[in-house]
């Protein structure tokens, strides 16, 4: 393997956040809508109808392109990409060929720049559903056109990725960026983000590109990683046994954990692209582009760097917080409400992030109060977790919950000392072990203490215990 270099480029299709389809007023709908419930004459390709460009889709595409540092040309147009397939009722897809909405951008991963060739707009196709009777060889195929005409942004990278890890990191970074700027929900499971890596290998040190294969049907970051690893291994085996890699499109089978040949790769000339005659070219006003540029929030890369320096956070914490805008916003709001930075980051990463999906919004002031209660020693960490769960669910203030449940931690020295003496009297063996030098016996004593008096300040109790034992 060490003599081979892996070269990966990515095409990522993303559904921008819009209410309606790319060229008609149909709702983009949801996964699981009844088949053919969001369709009209335009998106089913009836004769004599005219498409109209969805401005919200253009705006989302331009914001994405700007966030990816792309150049936006003054003129852009749509083209017809011609091919016949039953899920494509018009017999062509409206896409962009030689004048895309943007070019020449980049996305910086950790110390590694991935060049972006272009970000353009197009429309999705319908979906075929195959059913039938295997025994009697009576096949039936149905077509659902709900997806036909749904807007898609295509983000094309240069072949700058060198491993399955980098390809996955790139896709994750794109998702974070798209969510941060509000251009898409970019949910892979809902098909809103589809990554298609093209992969080739070459002898280390060579400048020539090998023959590439393109992978389809990938619906999670994990599958993306595995599919690439599998495909690289397959190509190495083919070349090392004296064979040649065929330029083709390959699918990924999640069940079998392998890639398989789908069809030989089409070349651009096969599609007979020509300008879409039913849509005028777009002239993008410089003032509008500037307005969109100014409307972009702080992007994940710069925010990660700022969180690390402004709050003296470790790089790993800053990366985790900046990965979700909601987490980073919560962190900054909690610190603003008076909580210390590092403990706030710990609470958000350890306790909030794993439960964020589908949860109600969490009041940053309440989180700040919990962090303060725990760092000041008023309540224990475990109690803090309990209060967080209750406050997040009910929206009530932590102080109210602490008072109601009588959770306040016992930090009164004489009260703690009497429990400590009780523990020493009840555990003669552990005490003898400890005094004989077995320091781990302290753990057993502390466990008994927590059982007898869960509200006791553990730091104070541990200090007292050691003082009385020595
Ligand atoms: Zn329609």
Strand content: 15-25%
Q: What is the 3D form?
A: elongated
* Straight-line N-to-C gap: 59 Å
Helix amount:
25-40%
> What summary fits the major beta sheet?
8 strands, mixed
The low-confidence runs, each spanning 5 or more residues with pLDDT under 50, are none
- Computed Rg: 29 Å
Tally of helical segments: 15
Structural class determined from secondary elements: alpha+beta
Task: Output the strand order for the largest sheet.
Answer: 5-6-9-1-10-11-12-13
Bound molecules: zinc ion
Number of strands: 15
Q: What number is the mean pLDDT?
A: 92
Strand and helix map with partners:
Elements: E1 4-14, H1 55-67, E2 75-76, E3 79-82, E4 92-95, E5 103-109, E6 112-123, E7 127-133, E8 138-144, E9 151-157, H2 164-181, E10 193-203, E11 213-216, H3 221-240, E12 248-253, E13 258-264, E14 274-275, E15 282-283, H4 286-295, H5 300-310, H6 315-322, H7 325-336, H8 341-352, H9 364-375, H10 381-394, H11 398-405, H12 413-426, H13 428-435, H14 441-452, H15 458-469
Parallel strand pairs: 11-12
Antiparallel strand pairs: 1-9, 1-10, 2-15, 3-4, 3-14, 5-6, 6-9, 7-8, 10-11, 12-13
Zinc ion (ZN) binds at residues 21, 24, 26, 39-40, 42-43, 149.
């Amino acid at each position: 393997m060490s003599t081979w270099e892996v070269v990966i480029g990515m095409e990522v299709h993303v559904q921008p956040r819009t209410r309606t389809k790319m060229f008609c007023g149909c709702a983009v709908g949801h996964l699981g809508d009844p088949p053919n419930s969001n369709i009209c004459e335009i998106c089913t390709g009836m004769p004599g109808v005219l498409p109209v460009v969805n401005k919200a889709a253009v705006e989302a595409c331009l914001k994405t392109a700007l966030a990816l540092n792309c150049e936006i040309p003054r003129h852009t147009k749509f083209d017809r990409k011609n091919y016949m397939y039953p899920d494509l009722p018009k017999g062509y897809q409206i896409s962009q060929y030689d004048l895309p909405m943007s070019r020449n951008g980049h996305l910086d991963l950790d110390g590694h720049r991935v060049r972006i060739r272009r970000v353009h707009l197009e429309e999705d196709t319908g979906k075929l559903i195959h059913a039938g009777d295997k025994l009697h060889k009576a096949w039936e195929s149905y077509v659902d056109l709900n997806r036909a005409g749904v807007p898609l942004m295509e983000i094309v990278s240069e072949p700058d990725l060198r491993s399955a890890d980098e390809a996955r990191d790139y896709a994750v970074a794109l998702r974070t960026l798209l969510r941060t700027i509000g251009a898409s929900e970019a949910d892979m499971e809902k098909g809103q983000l589809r990554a298609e890596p093209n992969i080739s290998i070459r002898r280390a040190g060579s400048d020539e590109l090998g023959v590439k294969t393109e992978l389809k049907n990938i619906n999670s970051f994990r599958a993306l990683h595995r599919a690439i690893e599998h495909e690289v291994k397959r190509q190495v085996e083919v070349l090392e046994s004296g064979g040649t890699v065929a330029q083709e499109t390959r699918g990924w089978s999640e069940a079998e954990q392998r890639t398989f040949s789908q069809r030989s790769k089409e070349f651009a000339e096969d599609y007979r692209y020509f300008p879409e005659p039913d849509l005028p070219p777009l002239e993008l006003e410089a003032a509008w582009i500037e307005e969109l540029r100014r409307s972009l929030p702080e992007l994940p890369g710069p925010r990660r760097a700022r969180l690390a320096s402004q709050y003296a956070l470790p790089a790993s914490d800053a990366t985790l917080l900046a990965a979700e805008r909601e987490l980073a916003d919560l962190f900054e709001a909690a610190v603003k409400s008076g909580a210390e930075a590092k403990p706030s980051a710990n609470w958000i990463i350890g306790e909030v992030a794993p439960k964020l999906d589908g949860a109600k919004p969490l009041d940053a002031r309440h989180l700040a109060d919990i962090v303060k209660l725990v760092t000041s020693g008023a309540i224990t960490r475990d109690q803090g977790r309990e209060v967080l769960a209750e406050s997040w669910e009910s929206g009530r203030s932590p102080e109210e919950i602490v008072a109601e449940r009588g959770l306040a931690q016992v930090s009164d020295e004489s009260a703690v000392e009497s429990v400590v003496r009780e523990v020493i009297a009840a555990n003669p063996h552990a005490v003898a072990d400890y005094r004989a030098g077995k320091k781990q016996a302290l753990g057993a004593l502390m466990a008994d203490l927590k059982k007898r008096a869960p509200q006791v300040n553990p730091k104070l109790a541990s200090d007292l215990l050691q003082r009385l034992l020595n």
